[in-house]
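Below is a complete specimen:
___
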Amino acid sequence: MRRMRLGRDGPEVSALCLGTMTWGRQTPEAEAHRQIDMALDHGVTFMDTAEMYPVNPIRAETVGDTERIIGAWIARGGGRGGRRDAWVIATKIAGQGSQARGGEPITAEAIGRALDASLRRLGTDRVDLYQFHWPNRGSYHFRQIWDYAPKGGREAVIDNMRDCLRAIGAAIAAGKVRAWGLSNESAWGMAAWLRLCDEAGVPRPVSVQNEYSLMCRIYDADLAELGVMEEVTLLAFSPLAAGLLTGKYQGDVIPPGSRREANPTLGGRIGPRALAAAEAYVGIARAAGLDPAQMAIAWTLTRPFPCLPIIGATTADQLAVALGAAGLALPAEVTEAIRAAQRAHPVPY
């Protein structure tokens, strides 16, 4: 498994990250533990979770359950022993309006409480990458781009950022956090955080976790240049477009037990243009004798900016397919066909 460093000076991780958002909802604990063992056997050493997981749907009563499942796996191997040290573990503090912590915004005080709660659930003394799940000021992600209106209020936003940086700096100094990052951020937001870190002498964020796939390429025209110039790694979530790029929803079907059974629109992704785009990409893979999911994941590893995909799976069988993308080199004719498909199906959702 190829390895890469997060950001300029973050932890070294495997080129694939194990996603966990279904654990405790669609994926039972025993199956989740099987996925952890399987991923580790294949050289994956980077795992991403969040205080508000599991999802589909998010419920106040299940907040933290995914972290508890990971904590149970760690405890099975001796707490802070070798099994914990085999992993770079990332988690997130939920933003304003979530089911976690009563929907409160991210503040210095909230960071302290949420981080300590995550550490207890995970059964560890540190988080290797601590992320802000989305900005307090709102976001254009999750199909909100069509009605996105920046709120303004720069002075209050900057004051909150400085407040949060004091908490992150203190957590890093205390050894509770190794590195930190953002999620569902914009170019302005990332640039502001980087500048404020430099002013305050706080370590810079090493990563931004945004949606990115063959079908969601906002990052290309928004944050890609910042990622290169400022050495910020994209952690690409939903690299399979919530399953659309596997081919399992072709014909607009809803397979039993699938994510779409719990979320029929796949978070607003389903529509005629999206189904047509997915069919084009799946067709490219099948014509080349490739697994569509492996092609889509392998493509993210070819990007001209720091990029690392998060591979989430409901079952170990699905994970086994995704893991096969690690050693896949896409033929030139496949990458050319992908370029043509992207021009034919821009912004499919």
User: Anything to note?
Assistant: Residues 21 and 54 are 5 Å apart (CA to CA). The mean pLDDT is 96.
